[in-house]
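Issue 218. Parser rejects a valid record. Input:
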Amino acid sequence: MVSVWSRQSPTRGGDAAVAGELWALIAPDFLTLLSWSAHERVVQFPADHPLLGWSSCVVASCDFKAHTSNGLCAACMKRWKDHGEPPIDEFMDEDRPTVRVGYGLCIVSPCQRPWRSRGTALCASHHHRRTRVLKVSMEEFLAHPDVFGLASFGPCAVAACTRDRESSSGPYCINHQLRWVKIQRQPESVRRSSHDIDEQWFRRTNAAIPVGTECSLRGLPDRVAAELLYGLSRRTANGVKTRADQFRPLVAHLLEHQLSSVEEVVLTDLRQGVKIVCSNVLTEVRRVRLTPESERAKDEWDVSVFGYNGTLRFQTISQPWLREATKTWAYNELPRRHAKTTKQLVQGEVNVVGMLSESLRLQRPGDRGDDPRLLSRSDIAGFLNRLMFLHAGGTMSDYARMTTVQTLRRVLARMRSLGLTAPGQPLHGLPDDFTLAPEDVPPPGERDTQHRDVPVEVMRHICARLDDLEKANTREIRVAVELLIDTGRRPDEICQLGLDCLDRDEQGKPVLVYTNFKANRLGRRLPITEATAAVITAQQDRVRDRFPNEPAGKVILLPAPTRNPHGHRPISDDSVSWQHRKWILSPTSPSP
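Output the parser choked on:
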C-alpha cells in the first residue's frame, strides 16, 4: 500500500525545530512498541500492554475489542441483552453471526485490492468474476487456473486514510466515497460553511476509518505527530492508561480544524475523556521548553522544573517590586527545602506576602504601595493592626496570627539577606524600618492542652473497627492508618515506605527503616512490635503478588491503586488523611 501522508503542507522552520526536539526525546523502544514507522505514520496500540492494551471480546467466535465490564464488545452486548442476559459463561460459547464490516485484502493471492465485505472476502472484480462469469463455488474459484491476483488501484485520496481505492473510477476507499456522497447530498441549510462541499478540504480534514486499535497520524503536520507521540510516551511513563478510542478523536479534531500544534486546541471543544488526554499532552509538550530560568520570569510557575508537582502562583501580590522580590526569594528557597510538601509550604508563605500586599493596597489609597521608597514603619503597623482586626472578628486564630507574622518576618529578612535592597534590585530604596522585630510576633495565646490526645477508649474503638475502614476504601489505606497509629510517624514517611522497609536488629527485634523527609535524614531506624511487623509482612506478600516481576528495591510498600503499572508510585498522604477523616466523620463512623 502506498502512503499518502507526504501530501500535507510543508512544515514551518520553527515547527521543524520543535518537532525535531520532540522526536529526539521519544524513546525508540516506545516507538517500536507502537509499531511506528516514519513512512507509514500509523500507531498500533499493543493488546498485551498494561497501559495501552485492550481485551478481545470473550465470545469465542468474536475478535472485536471488548468495551464493557463483562468482557463483551458492543455488538455482542446487544445480542446478550436480546437473549435475556444469560450467564456469560454460557453466552461466550455461542457462535457470533458473520460480521460483514471491516477491512482486508482479497483472499486471492497475491491480489492487492480490498475485499467488498468480510462475508465475500473477494475484491469487486473477483467477486463479479466468481458469481457472474464462472458461477462456481469459492473453493473452485480459488483453484481455477485463470484466477490471479490484481494490482492495487492506489491509496485513497483522503490524506489520513490507510486504505486503498476500491475501483479505478473513484479516488476514495469505499467508506470515504460514501462519506463524500453523503456530504454532497446535504441540503444547503445544514452546511456549516463552504468548506463542507470543498473536495480538497474534505481530503485534508477527514480522519482515517478506524481499524481495531489502529490510529493513523497521516495528514498531520510533523510537529503535531511528534507532540502527540511525545505526550503519549510521557503519559504512559507516568503510569496513565490510554485507550485508542480516547486518542483517535483527538487526532480527528486536529485534522478537522487543520491545527499546526496541539497547543491550538480549545479543550472545551472535546468530550471529557479526550479532553483529559489532550490536557496531559499539552502539559508534557509545554514542559519540554520550560527551565527554572524561564519560569522565574512568570507570575505562575510550573514547579515540575524544580522537581515538584503543581503550580506556584504570585498573582495575589499586586505591587511589582514586592512580586519580583517574592519570586526571587522563592527561586532561592525551593532548592533549600527537601519535604514532599515544599510547593505547598512555599505557596503558603507567598500567600502571606499577598496579605501584606493587600494591606498596602487598602491603607495607601494614593499609591497603593507601588513605590517602596515611600513606605515606613507605619505601614508595618498597619499590617499588624489589620491582623488584629481579623483576629478580633474571629476570622483568624491566635496561632494563625502568630505564624503569619513569623512567616512574613522571616521572608522579609531573607529578601534583605539576598541583597534585594541593592541598586537595581526590586527592594532598592525600601526604608530600613520597613521590617518586623521579634517583639512584633504575638504570643500564641492560651492553648487548651487538656484532651489534646485521643482518649484511650476512643483509640481502642477505632483500632477495633479498622476492618470497616478497609471495606470502605482499600487495603493500603487501612495498613497506612494502622502503621500511623503504631509508629507515630508522619503520613508522608509512612506512604513513602519501600517494600524492604522491615529489618531486624542484633537481637532479632523488628525495626522499621524509613526516611525523615522533613529533616532530609535517610535510613532512620525505629523499633516496632512484632504485631506491627506482621502487618508489614502481610502487606509485603500482597505487593509481591501484585508486582511479581518488579525488583523489590523499586517497589513501594503501599502502592497506589491506579496509574501504577510497576508499583513505583505510592498512595499520597493527602489521600490517606482525607479517607481517614471521611471514615471517622461518616454516619457509620467508629464512635464508641
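Fixed in the parser; the record now loads. The two ends are 73 Å apart (CA to CA).
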